[in-house]
């Protein structure tokens, strides 16, 4: 495989990673806003958060992507295609992650909240010092799944001609004609990235748990609990 | 072209959307059946006492689960004809969809099977049940109702993945919308039409899934 083709692959890898990382970060923002918004006391905030979650969980990512790239121009907004990709992915994953956030915040033992109120902490302090640190530890394992879903979803952007890893693989295949090898290699590539991401998330979880003073099982690849 | 968004065109696109919807539902249904059957098979194989069976199957299942459906679609679409298997794009798509989701349903089945109390296994052993009878009469009847809600949710997920089939030339809803768009140079209305239909169908499916959940979620331990 020529050097020129390899350059495409590296560029594709870079784009895929960028989509994943920025999509995750933006999605995280949406997730927290919507997830915390759903537990809000104000009906309007709750309603908006619920609409966001239900709508963007019900929409296929590809349709959202096409909508941002094909429909928005009609209304006068031409988005940079890469940003449109990140936005579509982030909106979609944010909706799923919002449910994770909501569940994790609800899972913090009520006693913690009561103690925080008894200690005269302001709502902001309650959130920052008591609820969020514990909720975040609970959030990380499901987030890890969401992140892998995001990684897989980035391949969709190849269908709108954004030059991600899948798009690069198509180019390589068109040039070399080695269909089976190229697609197998592509699958392995995604599998490796997924492995790296999962390991990073596990490290994050251990760090967060340790900061809370919780016991952490030895060994990075802990026994998978009976799922 | 910054012309106004014409709702009449959205309405006009609907018949084509419905044709595409039928294709998408076909793919979902076939894929779902495959996912249910294959998933159970994977789950049982992964529980095998034989390392040579459980480990490769486990590896393959995890591999398929961690890699994009789109790439798997391309893989089967291009590679199957090379080894002599020549089927329609819809069949290829439904198969790939089913295989991909079988890896998810296998996890669900596994959790259901693990959730059956150990006492049940011991009782079956004490009553001298054969392996086959243990599974068919004791374990599976308890494991499966438990996980029906989770399994029901995967139909929705599969339906929402059907747009990816347009990459392998299946004319489902989004593909039809883009086709209309490329003819009329107005993409907004057909894509909006497709989006609306997806949203409505997904919401209906979610509502149905909630009903199934309520009915089956009453399984006592």
From TrEMBL, chain B:
Offer one example of a GO biological process linked to this entry: amino acid transport
Annotated Gene Ontology cellular components are: ATP-binding cassette (ABC) transporter complex
UniProt keyword terms in alphabetical order: Amino-acid transport, Cell membrane, Membrane, Transmembrane, Transmembrane helix, Transport
Compartment(s) of residence: Cell membrane
This protein's source sits in the domain of life called Bacteria
The record's listing under Pfam families reads:
BPD_transp_1
Q: Does the keyword Oxidoreductase apply?
A: no
Molecular function in Gene Ontology: transmembrane transporter activity
- Residue ranges crossing the lipid bilayer per the database entry: 20-45, 83-102, 165-185, 191-212
What topology does the record note for this protein and the membrane? Multi-pass membrane protein
Record keyword Protein biosynthesis present: no
Q: Where is the ABC transmembrane type-1 domain?
A: 17-209
What the entry lists under PROSITE patterns is as follows: ABC_TM1
Instruction: Give the family from UniProt.
Output: Belongs to the binding-protein-dependent transport system permease family.
Q: What is this protein called?
A: Amino acid ABC transporter membrane protein 2, PAAT family (TC 3.A.1.3.-)
Look up and give the organism this protein is from.
Answer: Prauserella rugosa
């Amino acid at each position: 495989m020529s050097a020129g083709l390899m350059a495409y692959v590296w560029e594709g890898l870079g784009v895929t990673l960028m989509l994943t990382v920025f999509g995750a970060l933006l999605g995280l923002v949406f997730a927290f806003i919507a997830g915390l918004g759903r537990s809000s006391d104000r009906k309007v905030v709750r309603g908006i958060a619920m609409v966001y979650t239900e709508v963007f969980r019900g929409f296929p990512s590809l349709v959202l992507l096409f909508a941002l790239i094909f429909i928005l121009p009609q209304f006068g907004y031409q988005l940079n295609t890469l940003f449109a990709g990140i936005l579509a992915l982030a909106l979609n994953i944010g909706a799923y992650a919002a449910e994770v956030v909501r569940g994790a915040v609800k899972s913090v033992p009520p006693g913690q909240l009561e103690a925080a109120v008894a200690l005269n902490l302001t709502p902001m302090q309650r959130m920052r010092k008591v609820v969020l640190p514990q909720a975040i530890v609970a959030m990380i394992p499901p987030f890890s799944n969401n992140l892998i879903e995001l990684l897989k979803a980035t391949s969709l952007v190849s269908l709108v001609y954004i030059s991600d890893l899948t798009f690069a693989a198509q180019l390589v295949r068109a040039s070399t004609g080695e269909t089976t090898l190229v697609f197998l290699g592509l699958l392995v590539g995604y599998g490796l990235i997924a492995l790296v991401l999962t390991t990073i998330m596990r490290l994050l979880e251990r760090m967060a748990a340790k900061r809370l003073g919780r016991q952490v099982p030895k060994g990075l690849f802990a026994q998978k609990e009976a799922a | 072209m910054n012309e106004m968004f014409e709702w009449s065109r959205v309405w006009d696109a609907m018949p084509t959307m419905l044709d595409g919807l039928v294709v998408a539902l076909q793919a979902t249904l076939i894929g779902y059946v495959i996912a249910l059957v294959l998933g159970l098979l994977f789950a049982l194989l992964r529980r095998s006492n034989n390392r040579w069976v459980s480990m490769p199957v486990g590896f393959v299942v995890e591999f398929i689960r961690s890699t994009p459906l789109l790439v798997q679609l391309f893989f089967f679409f291009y590679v199957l004809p090379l080894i002599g298997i020549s089927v329609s794009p819809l069949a290829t798509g439904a198969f790939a969809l089913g295989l991909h989701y079988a890896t998810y349903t296998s996890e669900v089945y596994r959790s259901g099977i693990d959730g059956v109390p150990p006492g049940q296994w011991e009782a079956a052993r004490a009553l001298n049940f054969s392996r086959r009878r243990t599974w068919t009469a004791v374990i599976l009847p308890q494991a499966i109702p438990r996980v029906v809600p989770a399994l029901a949710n995967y139909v929705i997920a599969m339906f929402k993945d059907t747009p990816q089939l347009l990459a392998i030339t299946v004319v489902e809803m989004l593909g039809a919308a883009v086709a209309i768009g490329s003819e009329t140079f107005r993409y907004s209305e057909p894509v909006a039409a497709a989006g609306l239909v997806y949203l409505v169908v997904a919401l209906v499916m979610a509502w149905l899934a909630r009903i199934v959940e309520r009915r089956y979620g009453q399984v006592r331990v």
